[in-house]
Amino acid sequence: MQAEVPSRVRAFLAESGGHIDLGELRAGNSVELSGSVLSLRDASAARLAAAVERGDQLPISLAGRIMYAVGPSPAPPGRIIGSAGPTTTARMARFSLRSFRRASSE
Question: What is the pTM of this model?
Fold first, then answer.
């Protein structure tokens, strides 16, 4: 069973000082996001793409979600976990973007 579709993700565009639809974003825009963001690592992107290609029911809906490619940094001394930040999506290109688009429109 899929989880409930999250409330619409909103983007606040710093340049105009107003909210816009995600489809209006362009490279280089500075934004603040509110809403549910799905973080992906290589392995989770691979499992998700494979499930979409097989036609499996996904554990979460991709509709209205932002997918954020995230990578960890090493834990500093005395800490259990390090921080996480953006990483390149080039490695994830091998996972069919077409699959993610199809799953997000269902």
Answer: 0.60
